[in-house]
Specification:
Order of helices and strands: EEEHEHHEHEEEEEHEHEHEE
Structural class: alpha/beta
Strand content: 25-35%
CATH class: Alpha Beta
Number of domains: 1
Helix content: 10-25%
Strand order of the largest sheet: 6-5-4-3-2-1-14
Shape: globular
Number of helices: 7
Length: about 250
């Protein structure tokens, strides 16, 4: 499996960056994990829109805004005969008002599917599973695991450290944990809030015994080296997600 970073900042994008989005793909599957603001710029619509499955971890704007770009592009490119397959969109149900607004989008060539805790989807030889992890009270957040040929990737979505054990268990022994690390310990945020520090992400990776940690969901004006340094103090095999970075997982 290959993983391409399409976006890594929050709550807004700037310059040559975008909000969270990660493409996971090989010859048999074509997945997007989130599609945050500006991230479609790093995706080739005419080449890669066929057989696309989009998974949205939670319905905060910085994680799904570009979904409308994909939906309208599917509508236009299908009408032009450029794509044949409907894109498949997988969404949590809450907040229900946002969910219903999305699935009522008429200018699209797409099917909409509801995801929930414990659900399993099989696509191109890969098994995708979901685990509900607390983020904030206004949304349902689902961590996403992609498993294929004994290799696995886990994406956290946005999480609170209150559910650290749940995320660590879900990511146990995975090859790559893509984990939000919005905050830095040095700024003295409360240990339990709606996001993780880079240090906490490192602690979860260590507890889960993952092979590699990919930090993401950075404050746009923060020095990225500070995130890496903080996480590496507890988990050495840590990388920083940067747009257009491509990683390989498995053989």
């Amino acid at each position: 499996m290959l993983i391409k970073v399409l976006g890594s900042l929050s709550p807004y994008s700037h310059y040559d960056s975008a909000c969270p989005s990660y493409r996971v793909y090989d010859d048999e599957m074509n997945l997007l994990l989130d599609c945050g603001s500006g991230s479609h710029r790093f995706f080739d619509m005419q080449k890669d829109l066929n057989n696309l499955h989009i998974f949205v971890s939670h319905l905060h704007h910085d994680h799904y805004n570009d979904l409308y770009n994909y939906l309208y592009s599917s509508f236009a490119l299908h009408n032009l005969g450029i794509i044949k397959d409907k894109i498949q969109v997988y969404l949590p149900r809450y907040p229900y008002e946002i969910y219903t607004n999305i699935i009522r989008e008429h200018n699209s060539y797409a099917d909409f599917n509801t995801i929930y805790d414990g659900m399993k989807v099989v696509i191109g030889g890969a098994t995708i599973t979901f685990c509900e992890i607390q983020h904030s009270k206004d949304v349902q957040n689902l961590a996403i695991k992609v498993n294929k040929c004994d290799s696995s990737i886990v994406y956290s979505g946005d999480v609170s450290y209150i559910d650290k054990d749940k995320l660590a268990n879900f990511a146990k022994n995975c090859d790559l944990l893509i984990c939000e690390s919005s905050l830095l310990k040095k700024h003295n945020f409360p240990s339990i809030c709606n996001h993780l520090t880079a240090y906490q992400a490192g602690c979860i990776a260590k507890e889960a015994n993952v092979q590699k940690l990919l930090l993401t969901h950075f404050w746009p004006d923060e020095n990225l080296n500070e995130y890496e340094k903080e996480a590496k103090s507890v988990f050495e095999n840590t990388l920083i997600a940067k747009e257009n970075l491509i990683l390989e997982v498995g053989e």
